Amino acid sequence: MIRRRHTPPGMVLPKRGDKQITLLNLSEQNSGLPRLPRLPSNLRPASMDNPYADYTAGMLNDFLTGY
Asked: Is the pTM here over 0.70, yes or no?
């Protein structure tokens, strides 16, 4: 399970169905969260060479809250 010590304060921890997404899901890339080229709806990268370079923790939290 993703523990609060691994996330910024106030981060909403998403679930997939009725199960909490875990660090193992994230490391195995089977969490159900979108990946390139299906970008998070609030990601507007300045460069596709590093699309997450200017993506902030706040933007991630906003996306996860509504996902």
From this structure: no
